[in-house]
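[stage:ingest] chain + small molecule (heme C)
[stage:ingest] validated
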Amino acid sequence: MLRWINGFCFILFMSACSSVSKNPLYETDIAPIVYRSCSPCHRPNQIGHFNLLTYEDVKQNAQKIVYTIKNRLMPPWPADVHYTQFAGQNTLTDNEIALIEKWVVQGCKVGDRKNIPKIPDFPERSFLGKPDLQIPVQPVRLSGNYSDRFLLVKVPFELPQDTFVQSIEFVPGNTKVVHHVNGDMVRFEYDKKLNLYDGELVADMVHDSTIAQAYKRIGILHDDGSAPTLVKSVVNYLPGAIAQKYSAGIGGWKVNRKNAFLLADLHYGPSVEDAWDSSYINIFFAKKKPERPLSEFQLGTLGLTPIVPALVIPPNKISTYKTSVTLLEDISVITINPHMHLLGKSFLAYALSPTGDTIRLIHIPRWDFNWQNFYTYKKPVHIPAGYTIWVEGVFDNTVNNPYNPNHPPKEVRDNNGSMRTTDEMFQFIVLYLPYQEGDEKMSLE
Ligand code: HEC
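[stage:predict] done
[stage:export] tokens:
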């Protein structure tokens, strides 16, 4: 037995040795990995706070880089890649981690500077590319009083004609304070709204006791008092979540000449110092009418299905909660978003047929509040009618959870969908298309 283990280790050791270059150099070995996996966030005006673009940047941060990649903190990708794979999945292989570590141990050798590949042309202030239109959100001043703020913000925009939009991207101005946004779009009828900019652009949710009052305050209704069309959930942002841009034909919306984004809850997290935020919204037009607009449903907190047991998380315990829905029609799942707050420990979702066949959706073994991606599959995932989608969330309300906001731990619940960071949520959002034959072969990358 011992010999077998020795042999096994020996083989592993050999294979590790043979595939990691003996003398890694920045020019050939390291720069391509950094450009692919790190620079998209670690560049000016992006969320990564410091740059990883040049040899000097990487060398200067070498020790920190080794620490974060070995502990799989960077690049941030909490989903288990052995469970399901996603489009744009940003992870390092074991070999790449070993290679970078070796390069650092050997003194960060640059090689021939002339051969360092050119820094890619990253789109400025966007993850998706050069937008066709950039609309500023009204700047907001936040005082450093440690409390959350929830704002209702109107972002009006007028176009020369009715048109189609493929993608909408929220770009946070101050990534230290912007926590999340759920944004809808209001489509005004041209002759029923004279002044798009009437009312206040920003309403603090503490002033208005009903949503109708708040809508009035910010001028969301037509001039005759009638309600314009509200298109739900067109622009969302969560820490680290990148807007989705699907291949032509999937997703997208019609926009009128007069519209406004309605950032239904622009949530600013608690801040210690006074701060300003000026965020904006990037719009990418579509050439033609969306052939297959996306539909959405939401399970758990504020969603279609109850959480069992109710989300009341007792102190000093690790507790598991579930929610499920049985499908009445075949769907092609395109994008999913698991959501929990600070007590989240792990998240699992899968679909189960009546005979016990499983379709995997996502597993997040180590929940990280800071990285709540919208995950798009490489190809649509076909779930037939009759399958049940099961979602399981584990919450750690003990002192061992370093993110626990309460010392000592106390009972935490979802509080009717209060979005305060220190209340909890357990949600699974599914963006899908009605299934069509051949969907599972279509590439979403
Ligand atoms: C999706 C965006 C994103 C990507 C991709 C990314 N980072 Fe980061 N990185 C961040 C953010 C944001 C922070 C700050 C985290 C925080 O403050 O908690 C950070 C923090 C770090 C830190 C810690 C700095 C410190 O002072 O503690 C290191 C080191 C780091 N990143 C290295 C990397 C490396 C190496 C890669 C590529 C292999 C990478 N990152 C990819 C967004 C990203």
